[in-house]
Amino acid sequence: MRIGLIGLDTSHSEIFTRLLNDPKDLHYVAGATITHALPVFSEDLPISKDRFQHYKEIVENKYKVKIVEDVEMFMHNVDAVLLATVDGRNHLSWLKNIIHHQKPIFIDKPIVMSSAEMENVMDLSAKHRTPIMSSSSLRYAESIKNINARDFVSGYIYGPLPQQDAMPGYFWYGIHLIEMIVALFGTDISTIQKEKYAGKYEMLKLSFSDGRQVMVRGDYEWHDRFGGVIHYHNRVETFQLWKDERPYYANLLVEIVNFFETCLSPVSLEETAAIIKLIEQINGLDEFGV
């Protein structure tokens, strides 16, 4: 299967290409190859503009992916699309440019930047009969996949929460924390409280409709330590994603390739829409108790 990559402005472009295109890689994912890429980046977003040339050279020169400028030519030469620009603000516009080709599309996080845009995504998917999938790689981390938290009593989730003005609050890195929570505990959250601590981190208190609670700590300084503690009636379960033997990006790509082959997403757009709505609610909060 030939995959087209839109966006060369994020580490995901290098990681996805390496895992799919290099059979010698320890965590190689078979079944598909990235063959073409559209060299997309955002001029007004430093994390996009400043990294574009670096990742373009890797994808083009090391992995021999053909760089094309014409969207129609790009779509004609691929069977499925990874829409992986770092800038979630442009995902909906790119989707509108390609969805009429009716080829399965994976949209990297954040899928879009509002519930209104998400509704548009769902309408476009239905109208053009084009399957769409979006998921954080953390959902498929070994540590997460091996947990059945249905009978949890309470939980504590932690990880990085660096900020980007263009993708505020939990729309950028924080979306991974939210996706972990939804994957483990579901979306039946009734109340949310937030407290910020001296510009270093913030805490969320998520209360579910049945009274169970999950605390979330997001550190404003970036690091790779995602993890958590889950309490049950008679035991405690801990997990540390950075200690997993197999990288979660490889697990995600296995799911993506299967989605491209079957056109059946393991994560419904309805659940993705619930995640976007939850982020909007969190971003709209002020200090704890307000």
UniProtKB/TrEMBL annotation:
Protein name (record): Gfo/Idh/MocA family oxidoreductase
Originating organism: Cytobacillus citreus
InterPro entries documented for this protein: Gfo/Idh/MocA-like_OxRdtase_N, NAD(P)-bd_dom_sf
Sequence ranges assigned to domain Gfo/Idh/MocA-like oxidoreductase N-terminal in this UniProt record: 56-130
Superkingdom in the source lineage: Bacteria
